[in-house]
Amino acid sequence: MNPVPIPDRCLGVVIPVYNEEKTLHLIVQKVLSRPEVGELVMVDDCSKDGTWQTMQRLSEGDERIRIFRHEVNRGKGAALRTGFAEVRSELLIIQDADLEYDPDEYPKLLLPIVAGKADVVYGSRFLGSGMHRVLYYWHCVGNRFLTQLSNMFTNLNLTDMETCYKVFRREVMSKIEIEEDRFGFEPEITAKISKMKVALYEVSISYYGRTYDEGKKIGWKDGVRAIWCILKYNLVR
């Protein structure tokens, strides 16, 4: 039992979506089953499958859901920029549209903020207490390398900078301008948070990774871009 109760409907969830017709209805069901969730903002980044039609169907009859669509594919960062501009809740979380991250872990992610200790919380796949699907060795090495490189410039001691699960107080996010359109969002926002006087916490989370055959999208080019973003947003800005 949490020492501090998590208020009902305190959380706004932002889901960037691209070609996730197969899993979207499952993750939306899990998100909306959480009592902490007060609103769900989904942004379709010009999917080529039936994602938009699925979003329209899911939004019918539930006032918590609002949906938006990009007419041109712009990337995850751009979809998050659109979503964050629309969300109204005081606490915000990023949720991927696949099934790699479990909404049942929202309470542990929210606890440091609700307890008055944190302004931002990252969910770490590498702290070790949650279940993890065994997958790509070099992908794991790349994630750890990028996190350590980011830490060298931000002077933070994060274990998982590239994690999807990031929770923010609304006033923190309102001060951050997201410039990156793709996966460079992760090092960008970490660099910008490091320059703010906010309390950043990490909590361990489970990770149910998927293969590229199952729809995983991030690739080596995004890793190269992440290195550039670490340098750009820590040194140039």
UniProtKB/TrEMBL annotation:
Q: Which SUPFAM superfamilies match?
A: Nucleotide-diphospho-sugar transferases
UniProt-listed PANTHER family:
RFBJ PROTEIN (PTHR48090:SF7), UNDECAPRENYL-PHOSPHATE 4-DEOXY-4-FORMAMIDO-L-ARABINOSE TRANSFERASE-RELATED (PTHR48090)
Task: Tell me yes or no: is Secreted among this UniProt entry's keywords.
Answer: no
Q: Which UniProt keywords apply?
A: Transferase
What's one GO MF term for it?
transferase activity
**In its UniProt entry, what is this protein called?**
Glycosyl transferase
Q: InterPro entries annotated for this entry? A: Glyco_trans_2-like, Glycosyltransferase_2, Nucleotide-diphossugar_trans
Q: Where is the Glycosyltransferase 2-like domain?
A: 13-175
Q: Does the keyword Zinc apply?
A: no
